[in-house]
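User: I'm putting together notes for a lab meeting next week and I want to include a structural view of one of the chains we've been expressing. I don't have a solved structure, so I'd like a prediction I can at least talk through. The sequence is below, exactly as it appears in our construct file.
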Amino acid sequence: MSLIREERPEDAEAVHAVLVAAFGREAEARLVERLRASGKIIFALAAEEKGLVLGHMVLSRIAGESSGSEVPVLALAPLAVMPAFQRLGIGSALVSAGLERCRMERHARVLVVGDSAYYGRFGFVPASRFGLKCPFPVPEEEAFMAIELEPEAFAQVSGVVRYGHEFEDLE
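Assistant: Thanks for the context. Below is the predicted structure for the 171-residue chain, given as structure tokens.
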């Protein structure tokens, strides 16, 4: 089983390689670099085995809206595992550890754009149930997901969620 730990500065090159291998392109690696540079990462986790980074996950600051004011929301993006190590539970371990840390740190709301069958296992539901809309062209019911880590966390949040400029070239 992989060790799930906080990302370290010396992981940057390995994380870049994981992201490019998992997604087959540079966009997600650039996203992580931009999020690091902007200081919007709340935390990033790495899955390590025998000194090798096999997986990575980022939770970063985005915003919802409530009565005209911003409400803090976290985005789980990206989540990546080296292709040769996918379907072994590494991604699930990263998501579980990330959500547990969110709960411990009292973060109430997390959004993700991803497969509903995968993220549904962790308690994510379509964000539309909370009146939230994705700013990206994705099938909202199948791909734009939310989880409340505290009861009624999305009760006063609605409308289009604001992701930062760091997410702009992910289409």
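A couple of points you could mention at the meeting. Residues 90-104 form the longest helix (15 residues). Strands lie at 3-6, 41-49, 52-66, 69-81, 109-113, 125-126, 132-133, 144-148, 158-162.

User: Perfect, that's what I needed.
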